[in-house]
């Protein structure tokens, strides 16, 4: 007779769907190979990202089962959005009584799930624990710190993340899991080569363009920073190389109000948000990436794409230390200097991923996660050993 574990994963935003995909596959493989323990996996979607381009397409492309429950919370101010999530998640947890809740990353969905589960004494596993930008003005920094401190099992992706948790007295809860996004890139980069036709649609050749994103509140909510970034994109597209810019809904909404007279340069290619396979294909073929996204910084690193990060700091310091990422903030001069640096370095055949597996693991983070969750539940006698 097998033991049943009721595991619930909570997601709400694009980066979380990407991290969920390898976990779903790892659970399937585990269940096929185990006769003594079976994992019943439930997926809860808060609805933080809710339109097709930011949500449904990722479930379809990454072959993730569609959520068992969708709270449909939608967008809104941090307090309103998090409060609605907290109310909905609490009810689900009380009704379903999972053995453990799995949370991902650092969004409002993450902290809402952490608070709801902690107050109901339901164990929490936090995937991508231990990241720190040391900038508490970032909502994500507050979310990740609070989530780590109420979670029971901290799955840290890198040695730096492990050190951060140790410094905060959380070493006993910490597991070195490797980076689950590396799992996803490994699983899907070859699939993207076969399935994605984005380069053909845009009439682009590999190595001939840059990929750009901008969505962080620190940039979109600051008119000066947003002006500098948008003008930098235009300058790069005009003077250096075409820039492909899938525009986040937040940026699309804010831009006309903040910069009513701004117009895209001829070679700045503005697109709607793209699916994961198209993004992987674009990043893998780009000469460089310009972004304020934490996930895209890593995806660029994994795919040997030099990165310019338009923030004042990064949680992914390993990408900078390895020579694959330059931090510029929203300073136009620094952004242009970084672009020129990467043009020079790529012409010289510069590479920077020699220490990839040493830093981010071997692409087996999801397998490690499932084993560690079962070990944790056995150690607490929540399931028979």
Structural commentary:
By secondary structure, this protein is of the alpha/beta class. The chain has 2 domains: 3-178 and 364-379, Glycogen Phosphorylase B (Rossmann fold, 3-Layer(aba) Sandwich); 189-359, Rossmann fold, CATH 3.40.50.2000. It contains 17 helices and 13 strands. The protein has a 7-stranded parallel β-sheet with strand order 3-2-1-4-5-6-7, with helices on both faces. It starts with a strand and ends in a 6-residue tail after the last helix.
In terms of topology, how is this protein built?
Blueprint: E1 3-11, H1 14-33, E2 37-45, H2 56-61, E3 69-70, H3 78-96, E4 100-104, H4 108-119, E5 124-127, H5 139-150, E6 153-156, H6 159-167, E7 174-176, H7 180-195, H8 198-202, E8 210-212, H9 217-220, H10 223-239, E9 243-246, H11 249-258, E10 268-271, H12 276-285, E11 288-291, H13 294-302, E12 307-309, H14 317-321, E13 325-327, H15 332-347, H16 356-360, H17 365-379
Parallel strand pairs: 1-2, 1-4, 2-3, 4-5, 5-6, 6-7, 8-9, 8-11, 9-10, 11-12, 12-13
